[in-house]
Amino acid sequence: MPFEPLHVCIVYDNARGHCGRVVPRMKELLEHRAFIVDSHEVGDGPLELEAYQGLIIGTPVTGMGIRGQGPSARLREFIEQLPELDEHKVAIFCVYETRPGNTFDRMKNLLFEKGAQFVAEHSFWILQPHRGDHIIPAECMVRIR
Fold it and tell me: Is the CB of residue 11 less than 8 Å from the CB of residue 40?
């Protein structure tokens, strides 16, 4: 049987340019692991999910990451509009200014309600956006394949 690369999409809210600081490198690392990678900013409209085996969803976390931080309102609304994700494996990330707070718990709850299969999470500090940048691509290589 011939090898077929899997198709994944990085979906993110680029408010304040936070996620845009990590998405290009994440895309590059995923492509080095033989994924076909698209990126989709939530402000660009709806996303056709049928083409993707996996999603990587990211949000900025502004301020102190305390009380009510993350995911962003735009990303929350985008996730709520998605159809059921029963056939999709999902990794999540955030790019934070001071700390991520309970962003991952909130994102996971939204995604579990949609039936997603959760595979990985990683937070990036805005001042060191490349620290740990291999984590999500490595987890996707193992858990989405």
Answer: yes
Summarised one tens digit per residue, pLDDT across range 79-99 is 999 999 988 999 999 999 988
Check: CB of residue 63 under 8 Å from CB of residue 103: no
Give pLDDT tens digits for 34-69.
999 999 999 998 899 999 999 999 999 987 766 667
In the Cβ-directed half-sphere of 93, how many Cα atoms lie within 13 Å?
Answer: 32
Print the domain residue range for 39.
7-143
Determine, yes or no, domain membership for 85: yes
Q: How many domains does the chain contain in total?
A: 1
Instruction: Provide the CATH number for the domain around residue 70.
Output: 3.40.50.360
State the pTM of this model. 0.94
Report if residue 129 sits inside a domain: yes
How buried is 24 (Cβ within 10 angstroms: 0-12 exposed, 13-18 middle, 19+ buried)? exposed
Q: Is 134 a domain residue?
A: yes
CA distance linking residue 107 with residue 70, whole number of Å: 8
